[in-house]
Specification:
mainly alpha, single chain, about 240 residues, 10 helices
Length: about 240
C-alpha cells in the first residue's frame, strides 16, 4: 500500500483530491465527512507515515474541530441558545450542526495530510510541469527554492547559536535573527540564478526529462472514481438519507 500510494501520479492525485474537497464543500452531512476522514486517516497510516508525527499534527486540528463544534452547536440555524442542561442534551439540531462544522475541519485536514505524506515534492513539481503544463520558470523556481531551504535552516541555527555563544537571548523570530538570514537568502538566490543561466536553463526552451512522470492506467482509474463516481455517490447518499 505504501508504494502504491506514493507511486500515483502527483497531478492526478492533486486533481482527484481537489474534486473530493470541492464536493464535500457542498455536502452538509457529518456521516459522509466522518467516513472520508476515517478513510483518509487509514490511508495516511498505511502509507508508512510516522504514527507519532501524525498524532502531533492532528492535535491542533482536534482542538480546532472541538472549537468548531462548539461554535456550530451554540449558533445553530434556529438562533436560540441552550438555557439548561436538558436543552443541551435533547437539541439534535444543535448537535448535528456542530458535527457538520467539526467533521468538515477534520476531513479537510485529513485530505491535506494524505496528499502531503504520500507525495514527493520534487515529483510533484515535475508532474505539474508535464501534466498540468506549469511554466518551466515557475517549476525551476520551486525546485531551486526547495534546494535552498535546507541551507536557510542551517544558517538560522548558526545565527541563533552565535547569539547564544555571546550570552544574548533573542526570540525565534527576532529581526536580529531573520535579517542575516534574509541577506544570505538573497545572495544564494542570485548565485543560483547566475549558475542556472550559465548552464543553459531558461523559462522557454524545450528540454527533455530523465524520468518524466507518466499517467498510468491506475491513475486514470483514480481520476474516474474520485472525480466522477464519488460526487455521484455522495449526492445519491445525501438524497436517500
Amino acid at each position: 500500500m505504501r508504494q502504491f500510494l506514493r507511486g500515483l501520479n502527483p497531478s492526478c492525485k492533486f486533481v482527484s483530491l481537489m474534486v473530493v474537497t470541492l464536493t464535500l464543500a457542498f455536502v452538509h452531512d457529518p456521516a459522509v465527512n466522518a467516513i472520508v476522514f476515517l478513510v483518509s486517516l487509514l490511508l495516511t497510516l498505511c502509507s508508512g507515515a510516522d504514527l507519532k508525527r501524525v498524532l502531533l499534527l492532528y492535535l491542533p486540528i482536534l482542538l480546532v474541530a472541538a472549537g468548531a463544534f462548539m461554535t456550530g452547536y451554540r449558533y445553530s440555524t434556529n438562533g436560540d441558545l441552550p438555557s439548561n442542561l436538558t436543552s443541551v442534551l435533547v437539541s439534535d439540531t444543535r448537535i448535528g450542526n456542530g458535527l457538520i462544522f467539526a467533521t468538515r475541519v477534520l476531513v479537510y485536514a485529513s485530505i491535506g495530510f494524505l496528499f502531503a505524506f504520500t507525495t514527493d515534492r520534487i515529483q510533484l513539481v515535475r508532474s505539474f510541469e508535464k501534466q498540468l503544463h506549469l511554466p518551466q520558470l515557475f517549476a525551476y523556481g520551486l525546485l531551486a527554492a526547495w534546494g535552498i531551504f535546507p541551507q536557510m535552516m542551517q544558517e538560522y541555527r548558526r545565527t541563533r547559536a552565535a547569539f547564544k555563544a555571546r550570552g544574548l537571548r533573542v526570540l525565534p523570530f527576532s529581526p536580529a535573527v531573520l535579517k542575516p538570514l534574509l541577506v544570505k537568502s538573497v545572495r544564494w538566490s542570485e548565485a543560483l540564478a547566475v549558475a542556472m543561466e550559465s548552464k543553459g536553463f531558461d523559462g522557454h526552451g524545450e528540454r527533455s526529462s530523465y524520468e518524466a512522470p507518466t499517467v498510468r492506467t491506475v491513475d486514470k482509474v483514480m481520476l474516474v472514481l474520485l472525480c466522477l463516481v464519488f460526487p455521484v455517490v455522495v449526492v445519491l447518499l445525501t438524497r436517500v438519507f
